[in-house]
Amino acid sequence: MLKQRPFLIETLTAVGLIVAPFVLPHLGFAPNTVNRILVWGLFGLGFDILFGFTGLLSFGQSAFYGTGGFVAAYLLTRAGFSNVLGALVIGMIAAAATGYLIGLIALRRTGIYFAMITVAIAEVFFFVEFNPLSDFTGGENGLPGVPAPSFNLGFTTIHFTDGWSLYQFIALCYFIGIIIALRIVRSPVGAILSAIRDNPLRASAVGHNIHGYKLTAFVIAAAYAGFAGGLLGVLQAFMPPDAFTFDTSGQLVMQTAIGGRGTLFGPLVGATVWLFLQDFLQSALGLGAAWKLVLGVVFVLLVCFLRGGIIGGLVDLYGLVFGKHKRTEAEPDAEVTQPPAPAPMQARKVEHPAYSGPILKATGLTKRYGGLVANSDIDFSVNQGELRGIIGPNGAGKSTFFKMLTCEVPPTSGQIVFGGRDITGLKVTEVCQLGLTKSYQVNQLFTGLTVRQNLTIAALAELRGKFRLDLFRTLSGVKGLTEQVEHTLALVNLTRRADTPVSELAYGEKRRLEIGLALATSPRLLLLDEPLAGMSPRERVETVKLLKSIARGRTMIIIDHDMDSLFELVERVTVLQEGRVLVSGTPEEIKTNAAVQEAYLGGVHGEIAA
Ligand SMILES: Nc1ncnc2c1ncn2[C@@H]1O[C@H](COP(=O)(O)OP(=O)(O)OP(=O)(O)O)[C@@H](O)[C@H]1O
């Protein structure tokens, strides 16, 4: 997420665009090269939102670049449409609509499969342009005669013909493009896109409809591509057929990687390097087609040694020169030993206020993995305000049971009722939205973000619901967000570490943040899967103290192997063995239960938590 320094980036961009025509000619840049760089930069703004911010690597952006470009060019050259800006906007809308339809299909898969689908889609569009639609697109001849923009102001008409004159129009388009892109990445949607890039599983588990947000990023990228494609036709007075080629998509990916992904300006910087090298090596050094060899070497070196691209490298250098304080190990955390007593956080509204039974009731819950029965015929219920512990030997089925309760995995048979509502078969996102969530046995954090940003992602899910298109709202405009995040920071004793990146946290702090992520969604029922796992004895003592303070007024179910600590925390304990409920009772009853001792000690009697 970009730092929110009001209007600094916007102002610097405006200044850069204004001085560029006075400075760049002295550096050997022709106006046409600068205009091409801006078109690529604009194309890349949307792509960076998709790739850099959301983590979706598409090789199919040429499909939308070509669609927007050819729709605009067709309107201006064959359909008698004379308003250039209007044609560009229509082209952009056509590309966005195409992006929506393609996204519905492509986003059904992730990772390499998503990338492969986008390659295939780009190829289909290329074929369609050259064959069935060649009457409209001009086939291999493209569409010549695209007019330059002009604006009639009544008393005079402004013409943006070519060179630095056309630059003014393209620079204005780029400036509007960057303003919109900055608003998007600073909005709640932008924050959630970064969370999806870092950990899609957790983003959906805290209650966000990640498919909806990914589709949004896909459509935004298509819209930018469509507008940039239209500008390409205007810039060249001709819509070239190669807009649709796979090379176009590949060049965009490489330029973004060279400049720095997740920075918005990376594609612009990458395009500058690319086009400058192209002009310089081809014309000045007379390398001809061999210039791509040099580009290839530059690309490999950059990817190997500057993983954040040129902008990422500059940011790192800035950090080094100006001595950004980097901690390698955790500072002593005085707060841990003295947990504050924050005001109780409001649990969310009860969905069925008339319902008075247990908050959670599972009946006949069974989970089979092929021939292996992980859980078998479990009947289980928890009352409002209860603190329940679950214990059992390794492989007893405890985590699987939690996964079924939170609807991460569907049960093979059985029913789960939460707050009076049958939630069997719902999605994890919906269940979290109803107020049932868990902290994970193995940390599932947003590792590229800070502690505060992590908790913000979780709190946004509760405050905004699973999907909302507030693309132009700021995070500070989300009512109650700051309070909820600050409150959760205090609850898990991470206030002093709020702006620390997750990668710099000590293990115990990461475990507390893991619990914090679940807490920040204000759950009505909180499940904690081995919250003490992997902690040192000191961290355990502190975390138990912390859990006691969190537990006040909440309904919680806790799995842990540390029975001393667990028995200190909970009122009742359920013991699982070989996927079945062995027994339930108070900690005292469980400690002395012969069957439990048998399960743990293989028949050697004695108190298990002595
Ligand atoms: N996705 C899966 N596919 C196949 N088998 C699985 C899967 N998940 C769990 N199991 C099996 O189900 C059984 C119960 O596993 P589970 O992780 O629920 O136990 P657990 O009580 O949480 O164990 P631990 O205390 O070691 O975390 C184990 O035999 C495990 O190997």
TrEMBL record:
Annotated transmembrane regions: 7-25, 37-56, 87-107, 112-128, 166-185, 215-238, 258-277, 289-315
Ranges for the ABC transporter domain?
360-603
Q: Could you confirm whether the keyword Transport appears in this record? A: yes
The UniProt entry, under InterPro entries, shows:
AAA+_ATPase (IPR003593), ABC_AA/LPS_Transport (IPR051120), ABC_transp_permease (IPR001851), ABC_transporter-like_ATP-bd (IPR003439), ABC_transporter-like_CS (IPR017871), BCA_ABC_TP_C (IPR032823), LivM-like (IPR043428), P-loop_NTPase (IPR027417)
| One GO cellular component term noted in the UniProt record for this chain | plasma membrane
What keywords sit in the KW lines? Answer: ATP-binding, Cell membrane, Membrane, Nucleotide-binding, Transmembrane, Transmembrane helix, Transport
Top-level taxon in the UniProt lineage: Bacteria
One GO MF annotation is: ATP binding
- The primary location reported for this protein is membrane
Which cellular compartments is it found in? Cell membrane
Membrane topology, from the record: Multi-pass membrane protein
Instruction: Write out the function statement from the record.
Output: Involved in beta-(1-->2)glucan export. Transmembrane domains (TMD) form a pore in the inner membrane and the ATP-binding domain (NBD) is responsible for energy generation.
Q: Which GO terms describe its biological process?
A: D-alanine transmembrane transport; L-alanine transport; L-isoleucine import across plasma membrane; L-valine import across plasma membrane
* Assigned protein family: Belongs to the ABC transporter superfamily.
Q: What is this protein called?
A: Branched-chain amino acid ABC transporter ATP-binding protein/permease
Q: Does the keyword Transport apply?
A: yes
